[in-house]
């Protein structure tokens, strides 16, 4: 029996900067998970994934990541995505310094 679809966000890495980015409902890439489109329908998720994969000049490594609705937008359900959201782990500045509460 197939597993029930769980909500997801489309994520990737920005081609030039390498930053983690998320697809918004208005087809923009954002560096803030809270602005990402939380997709609750499997067919819609596959369409959004295909659209994102068609942007090789902007992003690389596109995939669907599980998420849940949080008070301020989507939140990761897996430690990998929580880790990716914070940025590189070898420098305590930049995005990591800004996300001290995460």
UniProtKB/TrEMBL annotation:
Biased composition (Basic and acidic residues): 75-84
Cited InterPro entries: DUF2849
Highest rank taxon of the organism: Bacteria
Stretches for region Disordered: 70-102
Alphabetical list of Pfam families matching this protein: DUF2849
Protein name per the record: Sulfite reductase (NADPH) hemoprotein beta-component
């Amino acid at each position: 029996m197939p597993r029930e679809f769980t909500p997801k966000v489309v994520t990737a890495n920005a081609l030039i900067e390498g930053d983690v980015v998320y697809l918004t409902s208005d087809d923009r890439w954002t560096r803030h998970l809270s602005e990402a489109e939380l997709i609750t329908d499997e067919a819609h998720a596959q369409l959004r994934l295909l659209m994102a994969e068609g942007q090789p000049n902007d992003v690389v490594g596109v995939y669907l990541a599980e998420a849940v609705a949080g008070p301020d937008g989507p939140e990761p359900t897996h430690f990998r995505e929580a880790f990716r959201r914070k940025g590189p782990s070898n420098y305590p500045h930049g995005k990591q310094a800004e996300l001290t509460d995460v």
